[in-house]
Amino acid sequence: MGLRDDLERYREVGEERREDLRAFITHGELGNGTDIQIPIKRIDLPEFSYQKPAMGGVGQGEGGQPDVGQPVGQPQPGDGDGEGDEAGDGEGDHGYYEMNPEEFAEALDDELGLDLEPKGKTVVEEVEGDFTDVARTGPRSTLDVDSLFKQGLKRKLAVDFDEAYAAGVLRVSGVGVDEAFRWARANHLPVSRAWYETRLDALPESERDEYPSIEAYEAVEAPTPVNARIRRDGLGPVPLRRDDERYRYPAVEEVTEKSVVVVNIRDVSGSMGEEKRDLIERVFTPLDWYLTGKYDTAEFVYIAHDVEAWSVEREAFFGIKSGGGTRISSAYELAAAVLDEHYPWSEWNRYVFAAGDGENSHNDSEDRVVPLMEAIDANLHAYVETTPGSMGGRHGERVEDALGDRDNVAVTRVGSADDVVDAIETILSTEQ
What we know:
Layout: H1 3-16, H2 21-27, E1 36-41, E2 94-99, H3 101-112, E3 122-128, E4 133-135, H4 145-159, H5 163-168, H6 177-186, H7 193-202, H8 214-220, H9 226-233, E5 247-249, E6 252-257, E7 259-267, H10 274-294, E8 297-305, E9 309-312, H11 314-317, H12 329-342, E10 349-356, H13 364-375, E11 380-386, H14 395-403, E12 409-414, H15 420-431
Parallel strand pairs: 7-8, 7-10, 10-11, 11-12
Antiparallel strand pairs: 1-2, 3-6, 4-5, 8-9
């Protein structure tokens, strides 16, 4: 095993010893942005320790080689003074397992048993795929021989018939060319009068009255099935025509880009204390990471609101606090305007996540928010109600009453950090 194998093994050990994903989301330091650093115990790579210059030879102390039985020296005092050093009172040395959003999404899928497969909406290019389509023209090198043969074979079988059976009707007493031709047409046999004339000329006189009537002939004789005739006589030549030719060409495949916009809405009114803000961050941040890892392009819109709503940067989103009241519909009005102007539903997957303590102004939930949620096309609408130590308001309940039967609306409640992962699972499993 070489050094490269050792390094790979240490990376594997680091991944195995990273903090449990559920525990990290619930209690860990989430950081800011898309840098995902999950704590692990430090694993030091082995290295050689070289002796400093002028320190003597191997096993050699001061004064040269000691004699047998001669003491090699007394214990020397350490750097400390001996007080307070027994247990080690400094900070531990911790490392981090760095995970990108794609790895995080995969790990969360494994943790929660999810398998979200985003759909692309915007065609970014067209590429040539496998040679699965056919056309009537093309270079000879792409001639589909199998297709050509099948076309010829279908034509052969369409006009194929049991010639012996068709000609046998001439052995009926009194049947001539005209009557035989009418009988053949009635039985869908593709023969002509000229064909019967040729067969009648070749038929000996002694065989022309073998059957007293056509009914008697049909009672005794029957056409041999085509598969039996092919086994008996062989397939024979298959007629090929130029208009049977088909040429293979590559199918044109559209490559779509999986693009998503996530609108995060947060109540910043006076009732939203630090604990509620922290719970919202613990739900929204992993959701942002997850969707970033699932989509090719991910953009985020952050909207804060009390009675009015305004757009903010992510860095300020989780820390804002206002002393005003609450009107949740103002945030949805702004979200609708932003989405319509910049993120059309035909081109973007859209998620609208809102969070608060359930408090809202009188009748705003029923009269304004619910209709706005119905009007905004989105993969998923979610409302996260933070209720640490209290029952909270009734906004979530009113959304559930009005939209709970829709498959793109999720309402979840978070009373403590222990509820965070369950809330994330509720939201993502609703989308799935």
